[in-house]
Amino acid sequence: MKIQSLSAAALALGLAFSALAAAPSTLTIDQAWVRATPPNAAVAGGFLRIANAGKADDTLLGAETDAAQRVEIHEMSMRGEVMEMRRLTAGLNVPAGKTVELKPGGLHLMLIKPARPLAEGQQVTLTLRFLRAGERKVSFMVHKQPPMAEHDMSQHKH
Predict the structure, then answer these.
(1) Is the pTM of this model over 0.85?
(2) What is 64-94 written as a DSSP string?
(3) What residues does 83 pair with on adjacent strands?
(4) pLDDT in tens, 87-96
C-alpha cells in the first residue's frame, strides 16, 4: 500500500514539474543587437528589449557568451554634467506587464574583452539568465549604428 502511494506521489510530482517546464515564458525578447567593434576593443555594448507579459516581475540576473570573456549588466546615467556608468550586480528588474529597453546611453549589456572583433552583419549568441524564466539563448545582430526600429517613423521624410 505504501509503495502505491509513493508511486502515485512521484508520478504527480513528475507531472507537475513537466507542466511547469512546458509552461510558455511570459518574456518576449527582441531588437537584440551588439555594436560592431574595432580590432583590440576592450568592450562591446549589447542592446535589446524585454517585454514581460506575465503577472509577476522577473529579473535578468546575468548573461554569458563565447564571444567575450564575460558579460555584465550596466546602467548609464547623468550625475550633474557627468555621465556615469555602473554595474548592476543585483540584476535588472523586468516588471510584470512592462517592457524594459536596453539601449545606447542607458541600460545595456557590456561584453568585456571580446574574443574577436565584432563585424557588421555577424551574429553573436548570448545566454540570458532570468530568475523566473530561466535561461534564454538570444541571437544578437552586429551593427555599427543602432538599427532603425521597424515602426520608427522619426527619420521618415516626405
Answers:
(1) no
(2) E-TTEEEEEEEEEEEETTEEEEEE-TT-EEE
(3) 78
(4) 999 999 999 9
How many CB atoms lie under 10 A from the CB of residue 126?
23
DSSP per-residue string spanning the chain = -HHHHHHHHHHHHHHHHHHHHHSPPSEEEEEEEEE---TT-SEEEEEEEEEE-SSS-EEEEEEE-TTEEEEEEEEEEEETTEEEEEE-TT-EEE-TT-EEEE-TTSSEEEEEEESS---TT-EEEEEEEETTTEEEEEEEEEESSPPPPTT--TT---
Give the burial string for 3-15 (b: 16+ CB within 10 Å, else e).
eeeeeeeeeeeee
The answer to whether residues 144 and 35 touch, using CB atoms and an 8 Å cutoff, is yes
Quick: pLDDT tens for 7-40.
Answer: 544 444 444 444 344 445 799 999 999 999 999 9
CA 152 to chain centre: 22
Nearby residues of 18 by Cβ (< 8 Å), 6 or more positions away: none
Q: Output the nine-digit C-alpha cell for 65.
A: 557568451
